[in-house]
Every structure is written in C-alpha cells, then in structure tokens.
Amino acid sequence: MTIGVAVLGSTGSVGTSTLRVLQRQRDRFHVVALTAFGSEELLKQQAAGFGADFVGLVNGSNGAGAAGCIGSDCLVEAATHPDVEIVVNAIVGAAGLEATVAALKAQKRVALANKETLVMAGDLVTRTARECGGELIPVDSEHSAVLQCITGRPEIELKRLILTASGGPFREWDRDRLKTARVEDALRHPTWQMGRKITVDSATLANKALEVIEAHHLFGLPYDAVEVVVHPQSIVHAFTEFVDGSVLAQVGFPTMELPILYALTHPERVQDDATRAFDPIEAGPLTFEAVRHDDFPTFSLGVEAGRTGGTQPTVFNAANEVAVRSFLEGRIEFGRIPDVIENVLNAHQVTTADDLVAVVEADRWARKETENRC
Ligand code: NAD
Ligand code: MG
Predict the structure, then answer these.
(1) pLDDT, tens digit, for every residue of 303-322?
(2) How confident is the model at residue 65 (pLDDT cuts 50, 70, 90)?
(3) What is the dihedral of CA 344, 345, 347, 351, to 10 degrees?
(4) Over pLDDT 90: what percentage of the chain?
(5) Which atom, in ligand 1's list, is nearest to the CA of 116?
(6) Against a cut of 0.90, is the pTM above it?
(7) Could you give phi then psi for residue 289, rounded to 5 degrees?
(8) How far apart are CA 117 and CA 280, in angstroms?
(9) Average of pLDDT values for 202-216?
(10) Using a 6 Å cutoff on CB, does residue 14 contact ligand 1?
(11) For residue 70, what pLDDT is reported?
(12) Dihedral angle over CA of 219, 221, 224, 228, nearest 10
C-alpha cells in the first residue's frame, strides 16, 4: 500500500516541484487530491496524469470540468480526505490557514511550504498539532535543513539557529536605488525560481522575517536564538548550534525537491537519483554577510512583530501580502512597501491570537487598512 498525498496549490512553483518528486516516488506515494486557484488547464492535466480522486478549483471554471469541487471549501475537503495521510500545503498566503488547521485536526502530516500559516497563527497551529496529534513538517529549505540537523536529538540540546538568506536581487543596491526598484528587477531572483509573491518577499527580506517567525514556532526557540546571515550562494541552508557549541549545517545546490521529499519521508531518507550531486569546488567560495537592517526595514518590522506576538504577526503578514500585491500591480513603489506595513502595524491594537476568530478578524482589519494606504 502506498501513502496517499494531497497537494494544495499543485499548479504553483512548490506544487509542481512536489508532483515531480511524487512522480519519481510512485512506489511509495500516490496522489489522492489536488487543488489550485485558477490554472484550470494545468490542474486538469495534473489530475489526469496522476489519477487524482479529488480535484478542487478555488475560483472560476470555464466549464472544462477539471474540478469535482469548486470554491474555497475544496481546500478543507482535500486536506481532510480520508485517503490522505500527508497534505502538502503549497498555497501562497493566508488562504492556506484553514486547510492547515483542518488537516492537523484530522491527524494528518502537514508538509508545510505555506509559511504564512505559521506567521499569522503560529500559536494556534502548533497547539492544534500538539493537541490533536497532527504533524507539522517544514518544506521551507532553511527549516528543513534545521529539522535534518536536529532529528534524533533531544529538544534541550538545541541552542541557536542561523538561517541563511540569499540577500535577493537587491543585495548590493543602496537605499536610494532601492526606492525605485521596478517589478521586473524584484522578480529577478539570483538563486531560486519561485512564485511572484515569495520572490518579492525575498527582495524586501520580508521572507526572512516570515522564516524567523516560522522557526520560532516550529522549533520552540525564543527570538533571540533565531538569527539570520546573508549567504549569496544559497548552498548552506541553515546552521544549527547545540548546547556544547557544536554547529551542524545542511548544504546542497538550491532545489526545493530535496526538502519536499524529506518532508514526505521524515525521519527516513529514501533513494532519489534526480538530486544533483554536490560538488564543493563547483559550489565555489561560500561567503557570509550581515543583514543590512537599515536598507531592508521590512525584515526588522517582521521580526519585531513576531516578538510582540498576539495578532501583530498576523497583521504584519496581511499588510505585507496586500503591499506586495499593490507593488506587483504598479500601485505603489518598492520603497513604499515597508512604510505602508509600518503604518498599519502602528495603528493596530494588539490582542491575543488564541482562536481562529481573532486571527481572521486581525487579518481582515489589516487588509482593509493596508488597501486604504496603497
Ligand atoms: P506560487 O504562486 O507559484 O503557487 C501558489 C499556488 O497556490 C498555486 O497553485 C495557486 O493556484 C494556489 N493559490 C493561490 N492563491 C490561492 C488561494 N487564494 N486559495 C487557494 N489556492 C491558492 O507560489 P510558490 O512559490 O509555490 O509558494 C507557495 C508557498 O510556498 C508560499 O507560502 C511560499 O512562501 C512557500 N515557499 C515557496 C518556495 C519556492 O521555492 N517557491 C520555497 C519555500 C517556501
Ligand atoms: Mg526559505
């Protein structure tokens, strides 16, 4: 018997990488459910190719009949499908939250690429996993690196994490030039091919702030113990320091297929011949630099929101999503992204984020406030 998998967001960058991994691992896994937002033609092809039982389309249908289920309810339905053991959540943004919570309640393993889920409702999501018996395994390459370093070790041995950041396309740009960066500049990521939202997040370094919050929740470390270093080659994915001072790192040429596969098989490792063999000489010199906090204020705003806790990270996430969309649509300049987010964070009355109602309300409020400023 092979393991049933649902891929939410199957048409995106992580979703299509996941299907490539599943195609190679057919003797271990089979695809039960697929969902997408738009991209109906691709979804239809994927469903036919993998013989998926359940196909969900969140928005619109041109009548081609790709989907058995239409509308946002299909996400929870796919995530809780009785034949599914692992839910790969590769949805972008806050839209992935409900499905993550529902899958954990149904005691599934959630292979989580959708980091926004943990940023907007980290306490709620990790508590749901603990109380209901679901499992939360990161797909994000830095967090997968950490998991690979700590697997088999008792929690109390872990002391500090250093996540690496490529620095994005603007690593060498000065502040004045940054203000006027165009959409096409921001979408030119030096080391990773990803969806548009995360690519802009990498350019502002919002992505790394989201990842610091994600690491705090996944590994139960205080914010002071989660650091970030810029590493332009993206070869070292994270450093993990233990209480005796020893540091382990996970390294490799950048590919999401390896962390995706590991999230499916953790704590085991399985043969995968498609991974590009590592060659330290080809990887070339590895360099590390400090984050330029003053030039990339979105990073500090995000980490600070995480430290504040409650609904503040929810608001950071929502404001960032709306500001990034506005930038991509040409409504605000790149340099306005952190200003808009900061104004919304300052206007927010922080409350606890213990339940879904509080999280959804803070998310809704922040989206409206941000729209008004864009
Ligand atoms: P993407 O834009 O390429 O794909 C997003 C997928 O989600 C698509 O299948 C789309 O149909 C679906 N989707 C979009 N809006 C939706 C909605 N409202 N409801 C339901 N489904 C919706 O994005 P991506 O680059 O694959 O990133 C997905 C997630 O993985 C993000 O949270 C991102 O931060 C994270 N991530 C991505 C990478 C990467 O290499 N791309 C690496 C690490 C983490
Ligand atoms: Mg990452």
Answers:
(1) 999 999 999 999 999 999 99
(2) low
(3) 130
(4) 93
(5) 32
(6) yes
(7) -140, 160
(8) 35
(9) 98
(10) yes
(11) 85
(12) -10
Structure tokens at 92: 């972008």
CA distance 312 to 314: 5
β strands within 154-277, DSSP E? 158-165, 226-230, 236-242, 247-251
Q: Are 263 and 145 in contact (CB under 8 A)?
A: no
Ligand 1 probe mutation, 144, 198, 212, 214, most atoms within 8 A of CB: 198
- Rounded CA-CA distance 177/200 in Å is 16
* Cα–Cα distance for residue pair 232/59, rounded to 1 Å: 37
Measured distance CA(6)–CA(83) in Å, rounded: 9
| 3 C-beta neighbours (distance < 10 Å), count | 16
- Separation between Cα atoms, residue 193 and residue 187, nearest integer Å: 9
13 close to ligand 1 (CB < 6 Angstrom): yes
Cis preceding-peptide flag for 259 (omega within 30 of 0): no
Nearest ligand atom owner, CA of 200:
1
144-254+282-373 shares the fold of 3-138:
no
Residue 236 — φ and ψ, nearest 5°? Answer: -85, 125
Burial 149-183 (b: 16+ CB within 10 A, else e): bbeeeeeeebebbbbbbbbbbbbebeeeebeebee
Cβ–ligand 1 contact at 241 (below 6 Å): no
CATH class label, 144-254+282-373: mainly alpha
**Angle between the N-to-C axes of helices 206-219 and 141-150, in degrees from 0 to 180, rounded to the nearest 10:** 30
Region for residue 107 given its phi and psi (left: phi exceeds 0; alpha: psi -120 to 50; beta: otherwise): left
Residue that has been written with the tokens 């879904």 in this structure: 356
Please choose from 46, 92, 120, 321 the residue to mutate so as to test ligand 1's pocket, defined by most ligand atoms within 8 A of CB.
92
Say whether pLDDT at 336 is over 70: yes
- CB of 112 within 6 A of ligand 1: the answer is no
Contact call for residues 363 and 134 (beta carbons, < 8 A): no
User: 3-138 adopts what CATH topology?
Assistant: Rossmann fold (3.40.50)
The answer to whether the Cα torsion of 161, 166, 167, 168 is positive or negative is: negative
Nearest to residue 251, comparing CAs of 139, 146, 140? 146
Report residue 35 as tokens: 């969902």
Task: Parse the chain into domains and list their residue ranges.
Answer: 3-138, 144-254+282-373
* CB of residue 15 inside a 6 A radius of ligand 1: yes
